[in-house]
Amino acid sequence: MVQALVEKGLERPKCDWIADALVALHGQAFGGKRGGKYRVSRKFLRQLIGRRRLAPELLMGVANELFERGYVLIDLETHFVVLNQKGFDSTRRLTAAAVARVLCSEVNRPSANEEPAPNKGSSPIGLQLQTSEAKLGNP
User: Fold this and answer.
1) What is the pLDDT of residues 55-106, one digit of tens each?
2) Closest Cα to residue 117, out of 107, 128, 125, 104?
């Protein structure tokens, strides 16, 4: 694809050109969709940009250029995903309460030899914390 440019003596595409191409592909209809997020294999990306190797510096440069244009490049080792940053607007925000629930349940999980604590009260986290404190000799 880019080989024709290289054969004409033009330079290999730079990060900004690659980012522009990936953004343009985001808006194109293919794969049964009118546009939107897509994945591209490492091999196909190398062919698309006319490179034998995807150097980390090149990938970082492309990711930075995409970010400036409102897109994200995610490296999933076997392939890349190109997403619009707006797709992240509807994601859940992690709260301290959610982290505390998960961490407390992991810390207070009974071992294989222990009986699970009886489920008293309305807050399993509070009960687990009380049970742990009682084991340590704290009232």
Assistant:
1) 999 999 999 999 999 999 999 999 999 999 998 888 889 999 999 988 887 6
2) 128
**Rg, Å, the chain Cα set:** 25
Residue whose C-alpha is closest to residue 37's, from 91, 85, 81: 81
Question: Tens digits of per-residue pLDDT, 5-45?
Answer: 555 555 788 999 999 999 999 999 999 999 999 999 999 99
Which secondary structure element, helix H or strand E, spans residue 75, and what is its range?
strand 71-75
Residues 6+ apart with CB under 8 A from 100: 125
Under 8 Å between Cβ of 85 and 70:
yes
